[in-house]
Amino acid sequence: MDEVLPGGFLTLSDLEETAKARSSTEVWAYVEGGAGEELTASDNHAAFRHWSLLPRHLAGIRSVDLRTSLLGHPVSSPIFVAPTAYQGLVHSTGEVGTAKAASAARTLAMFSTLSSFSMEEIAAAAPTGPRWFQLYLQPDFAATRELVGRAERSGYSGIVLTVDAPVLGSRDRQTRDGVAIRSPVPLGNGPHIVPPARIPQSDGEVFVFPPDATATWEILERLGGITRLPLVVKGILTADDARRAVAAGARAVVVSNHGGRQLDRAVASVDALAAVVAAVGSQAEVYMDGGIRRGSDILVALALGARGVGVGRPVLWALAAGGERGVSRLLSLLQTELAVTMMLTGRRNLAEVGPELLRDRSA
Amino acid sequence: MDEVLPGGFLTLSDLEETAKARSSTEVWAYVEGGAGEELTASDNHAAFRHWSLLPRHLAGIRSVDLRTSLLGHPVSSPIFVAPTAYQGLVHSTGEVGTAKAASAARTLAMFSTLSSFSMEEIAAAAPTGPRWFQLYLQPDFAATRELVGRAERSGYSGIVLTVDAPVLGSRDRQTRDGVAIRSPVPLGNGPHIVPPARIPQSDGEVFVFPPDATATWEILERLGGITRLPLVVKGILTADDARRAVAAGARAVVVSNHGGRQLDRAVASVDALAAVVAAVGSQAEVYMDGGIRRGSDILVALALGARGVGVGRPVLWALAAGGERGVSRLLSLLQTELAVTMMLTGRRNLAEVGPELLRDRSA
Amino acid sequence: MDEVLPGGFLTLSDLEETAKARSSTEVWAYVEGGAGEELTASDNHAAFRHWSLLPRHLAGIRSVDLRTSLLGHPVSSPIFVAPTAYQGLVHSTGEVGTAKAASAARTLAMFSTLSSFSMEEIAAAAPTGPRWFQLYLQPDFAATRELVGRAERSGYSGIVLTVDAPVLGSRDRQTRDGVAIRSPVPLGNGPHIVPPARIPQSDGEVFVFPPDATATWEILERLGGITRLPLVVKGILTADDARRAVAAGARAVVVSNHGGRQLDRAVASVDALAAVVAAVGSQAEVYMDGGIRRGSDILVALALGARGVGVGRPVLWALAAGGERGVSRLLSLLQTELAVTMMLTGRRNLAEVGPELLRDRSA
Amino acid sequence: MDEVLPGGFLTLSDLEETAKARSSTEVWAYVEGGAGEELTASDNHAAFRHWSLLPRHLAGIRSVDLRTSLLGHPVSSPIFVAPTAYQGLVHSTGEVGTAKAASAARTLAMFSTLSSFSMEEIAAAAPTGPRWFQLYLQPDFAATRELVGRAERSGYSGIVLTVDAPVLGSRDRQTRDGVAIRSPVPLGNGPHIVPPARIPQSDGEVFVFPPDATATWEILERLGGITRLPLVVKGILTADDARRAVAAGARAVVVSNHGGRQLDRAVASVDALAAVVAAVGSQAEVYMDGGIRRGSDILVALALGARGVGVGRPVLWALAAGGERGVSRLLSLLQTELAVTMMLTGRRNLAEVGPELLRDRSA
């Protein structure tokens, strides 16, 4: 399957197209589907159209340096691999391929609790990382503690707590097209792992949800008590939640709506970004994911104050299209596009990127 | 006709699609058609796109409680069945099916003066209700009084006066496609019932309309004199009319434009809601209907201050698609979607829903 | 050609469709074509979408009275027939049919200098009018004086000076499709009439235009010196021009962009209306044309302050579709739609129509 | 190829259509392609839709005079030929045809460093000009100096330094469709000319770009030291860069985003214009290019303060469609459209064109 020359992919759309051709309807419903009418899933990218770029010329640049650090980890660029579940569904190498590609690119990668390979296998495939573990709270805290402990022991350097999935969103496309995923890959981290529940149960007048939904912000302090790893909160869309996360000990937050897979009609990530940066940007690192398809999207997010910018669905496309080499190509494409965009706007490094780059197209 | 498994309907669009397949062109023109160019009919749903949702996470929720009361009647959720005429046209069970499904779901249902079954038959089919009677003023008040009296005697617990139909709107699609409805069901409440007139009569320089159009807000006081039931006014789109309604004795108002079937170019219901809530929300209950297709639409309306949210056309879809079971499925779908949406926005009950949930997408 | 039952036309779109089917490509290019990319031609109607209507209910109305007066002439409604040239191209009865239909409807009609029948024939066909003469300035004033004199003698009661056609606009569609109009009807007012010139002549570095373009606002005073008829200026789009027109003696102005046939990218008529009303509404009557397709469009224009609302292209559709009976149907359709719309918004006459009816949809 | 009668082209769209029919896929990708998703390439024209025109009538105009001067050179109109590379690709006469047509029309033309004919051949073909030389900085200054010297000696009267191409943009369409341009024309100015580099090189963590990208605004002073010709800076999109250019000696700036071929998501030229005029309009001449397709586009740009308005892609269309005669037709079409538009807005010369002509359509 890897015989495709990654160099043949010019843009992320090419990866998407090849991925679609290689995927069954069921798998594609998983990859592309969002919640409900997919308003948020499509807004995530469309909302970047609110912004134009204002270049600065003759800036005397001979090179562009994309390097930065994410919670102290030096990385080759602010682009990171956002966590997505079940990567084995789209390509046999699954998270192992993703990890090798990301590590080779010196890019931060986050891996899901619901990975198809175990976190130890992923770590072994690409020991140098950097690599963070995405955590879904488990129904009982002992199981959560076990996951965190394994992550720490196998060399993950951050815990990314997803807070926007107390229950699974209404994934209509998945339900419609994906009911019969014929050969589901097992959960790599063990058969005892509990994913976000799919269906709320109605108990008389009241809908009862899975127990892990009962968590409050105190869970962060509790997690802080069982690990020395920095805690990151993923799924933040408001200034208030950002402040709560940081007050409870988060070292970074990821502005995200889960790729539009959870709450349909949730604000687009890029539309939520500025308020979160204004609220906590001086105390914590702020990242975002959702809708990134081009280097210029990344530059917009950086200009609005993001320190890191994640890609989720595109990693699934890349994996499906070419396995590890597909992911390598994805990362290299985005880094090159970002570098060219910075060159053309006269920015030689990330410190030179700020809001003066942006013009509101509706103004 | 009821052999379809309601569980096969994942969304309201599925109900619509099945309903369309099962309906004649004539009936479908009645179900879907709006007034004129159907600007308002389509705006009603489109206007929800003005708003995004801002979730609150880690809110420590294990369950979501949708219960509320509408004019003191406890209901399982704020969702109610808005009145629509001629339900026998779309399914043989007509309003009887609707009443059974709504009552089983402990949902408020409003039934039209123009029902296909008599109000007594409807009441007998589902005695526990709650159930309100929608009133079209009759040309002479004695006939109006008779209708109200029958409603009171047969256990309806509210009178909903529709004020936006002094004359029938220009239903071009209905006229075009629906002229020859072949087997019109008779009016359940008796052959003497006078529907809103279809065609204005031109008398020289002046257009003369049906006599019931002469009513003023005093009619509310007059109605108050002939019934102990609370009066609700349906069709309000401005703060001024809301104030007039409440001043004249209305206990609740329904922000509505009759599903875009009356005044084309009328403001979308959700766009009119906030001003009405601001004007009378402290003195009366404010409901709305028009354009509700998803749980997230309902949450937007609630966040703008609606206490109840009605569905009209979707009930016709549900009836056409599956009779009583179709309506049950509709109500269950919307309640589940609303519950999931509340869970994902961190609201455990309706008291926690407010305008801080909303972000204006155009801002 | 008149065998079509006018009652078969439910909306103006029906008239348009039938007209198109009955017209040659060349004639249709004349009827529908606008200037350039037809931005203004399409904006004229689209701009009405900026507004929603806010009804007032239970207003105690039994009848709607559309009567008004235009410069003192009592008319059955504010709807008037805007002048369009060459009506003989679209139907053999041409302006004679239009005049009969308008007069029978007690509707003001304006007839073009470029009519296919002579102004005297038009007057003889429908003596009671009211009827105004649209004037294109002729290259020498004697010819203009002759036209005005004929109009006065044959019973026209107003002179409508078109000011937006010092040169013919770039009618690309007409040029493309209409070059070979095979049987051009002659100019009814005589072969010596000079239409707005089609092509500017370049004289070295400078483009030289037809001599009538040299007119200034003094022309109004000059016209006032040769006729006792009131002067109306058509083609106003700004407050400044409106003030100049009124200062120079105009008793009324028509906010118009010539149906988008002259200056492409000109502001839509309805977008220009409020500023003109604010500038001169207390001193002169303000009318508008451009984009009217529905009764609700008319109500929007009236609410913005127009005293009269004209239809141009729709009259050509109506003529092409059914001759005189087509125009009668058009006028009756629009009057009925306006009456229904007023009933549904709770306005019993034009004095009750004001800006409180409107809501800006973008706000 | 020139047998087509230029008079058959009514609009620029006709030229585009014919050009497309006559071009190979590869050449067309070069002509039409923009950077990335071509957001900016399409915004350039679409952004003119932000503006409507407000005419002034009865202005007493018999002629329209489009003459102006650009840096002291009298020209027949403000329209100029913007520089585009490789004109020999689209038609055998290449820049020679363009030069003849422009000179015959007494229109300023700018010729690219990357012309298919040598600048001397271009000059010889149309000695009277006016004609400016577009400069791409060469890797070493001696080569730059040689180019400037040749331009000066062969009668070019201005040097237009392009500052928005320190590296070539991501021309995805060109890469996709145009890889195999089969008979590339040689660079007319000599095989030693270095175009903007196509691919950034990644050196470890850092992207290294071509040496000419190292230039700063001091380059303008350096150029001023080697030529007596006035310097113009092309590619300005912000007030800040405009001020830097003028401070460094530029006599004029061209607001431009390279036709959307360099930085995708860059602000549309017409959206950037007003701020540049406000910043430097009193000290330097401000021109613009990007998205001009109609005379009314030109009038909008002039009303926003542009002194000259350039066309780039349309010149390639015109060349491809009809060689020199195609370009003549293009220039004549635009001049006529501009003249008619000015006549219809009541402006007799460019001094009468100002911002009062414009109305913001979104307001």
SSE layout and pairings?
4 copies of one chain form a homotetramer.
Chain A: H1 12-22, H2 25-32, H3 39-46, E1 51-53, E2 63-65, E3 68-70, E4 73-75, E5 79-81, H4 94-104, E6 109-111, H5 119-125, E7 131-135, H6 141-153, E8 159-162, H7 172-178, E9 201-203, E10 206-208, H8 218-224, E11 231-236, H9 239-247, E12 252-255, H10 269-280, E13 285-289, H11 295-303, E14 308-311, H12 313-345, E15 358-360
Parallel strand pairs in A: 5-14, 6-7, 7-8, 8-11, 11-12, 12-13, 13-14
Antiparallel strand pairs in A: 1-15, 3-4, 9-10
Tag the structure with descriptive keywords.
homotetramer; 363 residues; alpha/beta; eight-stranded parallel β-sheet; two-stranded antiparallel sheet; disordered N terminus
What is the total tally of β strands of chain A? 15
Unreliable spans of chain A: 1-5
**Number of separate helices of chain A:** 12
Strand order of the largest sheet of chain A: 5-14-13-12-11-8-7-6
Outline of this structure?
The structure is a homotetramer of 363-residue chains. With 363 residues, chain A is an alpha/beta fold.
Please describe what this structure looks like.
The structure is a homotetramer of 363-residue chains. The first copy, chain A, is an alpha/beta fold and 363 residues long. Helices cover 37% and strands 15% of the residues of chain A. In chain A, helix 5 (119-125) links the parallel strand 6 and strand 7. Chain A is globular, with a radius of gyration of 19 Å. At the A-B interface, helix 3, helix 7, strand 10 and helix 9 of A face strand 1, strand 2, helix 11 and helix 12 of B.
